[in-house]
Amino acid sequence: MSMINYASREINCKLVYYGPGLGGKTTNLEFVYNKVAPGSRGKMISLATETERTLFFDFLPVDLGTIRGFKVKFHLYTVPGQVYYNASRKLILKGVDGVVFVADSQIERMDANIEAMQNLYENMTQHGYDLTRIPFVIQYNKRDLPNAAPIDELQASLNPGWPVSEPARQRLTPDPYREGEYLVSQQDGQWIERAPYFEAVALTGDGVFDTLKAISKNVVKTLG
Amino acid sequence: MSGASSWSFREDDARTIQGILAGFLGESNARTAMIVDRTGQMVAVAGESPQFDPAAFASLTAADFSANDQLARMLGEPEFGALFHQGERESMYLADVARRVILVVLFDNRTTLGMVKLRVKPAVGQLTQVFTEMFSRDGTSAPGVESEFLGEAEDEIDKLFGA
Prior knowledge:
The structure holds 2 protein chains of 2 kinds. Chain A is of the alpha/beta class. Chain A is built from 5 helices and 12 strands. Chain A folds into 2 domains: about 5-160 and about 195-220, P-loop containing nucleotide triphosphate hydrolases (Rossmann fold, 3-Layer(aba) Sandwich); about 160-195, no CATH class. In chain A, the strands form 2 sheets. In chain A, strands 1, 2, 3, 4, 5, 6, 7 and 12 form an 8-stranded mixed β-sheet that branches. Chain A has a 4-stranded antiparallel β-sheet with strand order 8-11-10-9, with no helix packed on it. The longest helix of chain A has 18 residues, at about 110-125. By secondary structure, chain B is α+β, with helices and mostly antiparallel strands. A 5-stranded antiparallel β-sheet of chain B has the order 3-2-6-5-4, with helices on both faces. In chain B, helix 1 packs antiparallel against helix 3. Chain B contains 4 helices and 6 strands; from the N terminus they run E-H-E-E-H-E-E-E-H-H. Chain B starts with 6 loop residues before the first strand and ends with a helix. Chain B has a single domain (about 10-160), classed as Dynein light chain 2a, cytoplasmic (Beta-Lactamase), CATH 3.30.450. Mean pLDDT of chain B is about 90; it is low at about 1-5. The chains are: A alpha/beta, B alpha+beta. Strand 1 of chain A pairs parallel with strand 1 of chain B.
């Protein structure tokens, strides 16, 4: 729920990076922090343990500048990925405008990815939000590792698609980020929609800004 | 059920809220009063301008309040309506308003916790009324952003995050 403040002419949007532990959520934010011009970003806050595991969240405000008289800001959050921090994870989702799911591509982490994805759906539902109706993108991280699972397998497990019930949206919709692929398509006679996805190596920054651009553009679209 | 339901904050809302906060600051002798929404965004600031990053402060305040809310539930309380953090020179008092926003009061030794608590109650009452009315307003009555906004925002995103 983006907040439009007509008094201070500000629009603030909350983007949350979700996913399994050690998947690269904090690394995404760190890369953004290091690359965005210092004048366009605020201080990065990390509530982490002594071993640099996220305990509560990381927070990074990024300033898009003034557009048509409104100062537009994105507030980037990560959640702690470790299973037992669910209470904090759920709190961070409050008022979310867009979600990035950072999956760990390593075959060994497939179960952890699936568990985190199920947990995301559950926590969103408990807040009364519907993940299929808000901006949502998936990032397959660590694509450089030799044990990275093929994209098709990751897609089948983590992004199989959800049914599209509104007739107006039941039409072939190309994926703007990949030629020849579709976000809304028919499968076995049923219309389904998938979240856009990106391949990434967050440590080197590959795919980090592609992911952020996609989610922030989708969030901005919901303001109109 | 959906996700992105927006709420808007108009100039007349801001004036009313500033009036309430200014009145409270005058009576309590506290330094600064802020309204932070539960998602972690700064809504209003009155009194002495804080020297810290307001965005970071707001996100931590909301997290602090939400974490304590969960602790309250574990104790069988529906919520902790207020929190107090005591420092050597600076202290802060946080109070829930309409379950949607938090009133944050910063004060030093020019006043006392007792005085802040005494004066915060009527202020919370008034703010609750304003915010309840604001949230019950039809979201579609807000003016919204201009149609050119989307295109320009996309250009800025490309510029900032690399085209």
